[in-house]
Write a structure and sequence with these properties.
By secondary structure, this protein is an alpha+beta fold. 15% of the residues lie in helices and 30% in strands. It has an eight-stranded antiparallel β-barrel with strand order 1-2-3-4-5-6-7-8. The longest helix has 21 residues.
Amino acid sequence: MIFGRTVRVSFVIALLLAAGACVPQDGAPKAASTVTPVVAPAAPAQQQPAPPATKITTDLTAPRFTTGAATYRCGNGGMITIQNLGTSLRVVGQEGATEEFAASPANQSSRYQAVTHDAIVIDGREALVMKRGSTPQTCTR
């Protein structure tokens, strides 16, 4: 009985020591290979100006200024095309009717309302379309 416990404990200790040997003690990752890769010398190239730095906006309340269009399939079998104009949307229905939706409130980019009190909420690849007098429906890209 004691011999069996000793064997199990020594097996666990050996595994822990092996795992400890794989982890660097200073927190730095170990190199996979110490061989230096051979790189062919590059031909002299003309120096071109660096592209302008891209500004990353993380403020989700700031309006998006990207324009583009996407077609959404709705639950009732219909389709709509939504064109993002930055602070507003242009929605073309299946019948070809066009409606403008302004951001509501103006400083965000997911909720839009038209003067007819229709509204659209964009959430990733889904758009919740709410028309006055009918049940809201989810449309997906």
